[in-house]
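Re-running the complex after MR caught last week's input typo. The corrected sequence lines follow. Everything else is unchanged.
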Amino acid sequence: MLKYVLKRILYMFLVLFIVVSITFFMIHSIPGDPLTASVENLPKATRENYYARYGLDQPLFIQYIRFWKLFFTEGSLGESLKYPGRMVEEFIYKYAPVSFGLGIWGLVIGVTLGILLGIMAALHKNRLPDYLATLIALIGTCIPAFVLASLVQYYFTVKHMWFPTAGWGKPIHYVLPVLCMTLGPIATYCRYMKSTTLDIIGQDYILTAESKGLRRPTIILRHVLRNTLMPIVTMLAPSVAGLLGGSFIIESMFAIPGLGTYFVKAINSRDYTMVIGMNFLFTATYVFSLLVVDLLYLVIDPRVRLEVKQNRRSVASNVPDEQ
Amino acid sequence: MSPMNSDWVNNTEGLTPEMFKTVGVDTTKDRVLRPHISYWQDAWRRFRKNKLAVFGLILLIFLTVMVIFGPIIAPHPHQDTNIKESYHPIDSEYWFGADKLGRDYFARVWQGGRVSIFIGITGALICAVIGCIYGGVASYFGGRIDTFMMRIVEILSSIPYLLVVILLSMWMDAKGVKTLLLAMTLTGWTGIARLVRSQMITLRNSDYVLAARLLGVRPMKIVTSHLIPNTIGIIIVNITFRVPSLIFSEAFLSFLGLGIQAPDTSWGALCSAAQTVFTFKPYLMFFPAICIALTMLAFTLMGDGLRDALDPRQRK
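Corrected-run output:
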């Protein structure tokens, strides 16, 4: 068991290393660089000093070694090209809590509501709760986050002024962004939960449980919910990736000082160190959530434990199909 | 675990004499009571019964007709600016009004639809073709080749997909339809590859393929007449669900300014441009947004119907 966990963790670092390396070389092979425009009209010596300051005068491979050396010795991701004197990790320490806080709220509320709605729809099939849940799920699947954000912003802040248009720091500022972020997960989990619950309700062991005279809540909690949660756990990792993407849009639309906003800015201003650094963080978050899902499987699914014991489980056997 | 190497056709491992005992023949069961219908006729019959799915299909046909003929029947070409008509209200000449530069919004919305739907469908087809070939090759050869190929797939799908798209569109430094397609298909095929591989392996170990092997049917013939026809259903379903997610991604990227660039346009790019003036000119956001929503709806409903019709294991 321990051997599998260690192997799995090692595998996570391997994937992270590969992705960050690919990012590094891709970014640096883009023709031109962010300094080109600002140093164009400067004397040659000044220009060379500029490049030397950021280490851009060195061969690519040396820069690559330096990147990892800096990371491992000082835990640093390098200096931002756009904001001289500020390190990428400063931005991360400052703004990541905002983005992650928003993401976690969105995920927790979205997944919980989605699961509840899905179960409700399945248990009251073809009655009002089912239609309501299906409608919410359809709206969630059909409307892009940025359209929803525009609508919500217009209706609640411009027309009715119930919420502040901009600003950050108080709990009230969280309401609208979180609302926009939850609709996607609600739709996904509701649809999924409904179909799996219906599947399981039709199984023979539920019939057995019913004929044994177990009470309905017991059946739902112990027999239905436990089995529906398995596939839900697999879906959590892609949801984390989805929320990362969602945060780019939601943060820039609600003017929230989070990482998403800075990532979009960094892309548009070609701040390479910033893009590499944030990509590092986002990939790390994603592969880490994949690891957590895999380890959770060990806890909740006895079949997986058996596979591990018999050494049959691949370290990468549980990668999600869709993101 | 069943053997997974390339000479699976002649492999007899795991076969026991008990598997071939006669179970007795009941000739009365042989009579065919109903007229014979093919898989596709059966699927079409089931699809037709699903009202929501048929609604999705009709909606999709309507949208397709509009994106083909919309820019043609519009009174003004989609890229013609006319600054005097800036923010022209909706009337008999400008059916959807005009944007800031006085461009006919009706023409622009449908022109944008051409790009959005083209990216969605082409992207999904490219993913499907690559995924089928990759998954098919991996499952056909089996053994080490299979393990190696699947390991690559696993690493590729551990990369957050949006970052790949963002990085690639930065790297290629050319924003447009081609870049978007390449970026979205680069890792997008992995899902289909795994689906095809697992389906192929399941089918290969099934009894009727065993029967075909025992009758001496050539491997290529087994692949073409048993494995491929039985995989095509789930591939079609997968494509139907992939199209809307690609349209969504395109809209997302264009919204961030990484997608389609002016004077070309797409639904995402239109929404992005409309967002700044949303408070004063809500219709500029409304039309492209409703088009995205309707397309999503059409593909989702149709996908649900197709899944029930084509994939018997999922049938409720």
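None of the earlier attempt is carried over here. The longest helix of chain A spans residues 216-253. Chain A is about 75% helix and 0% strand.
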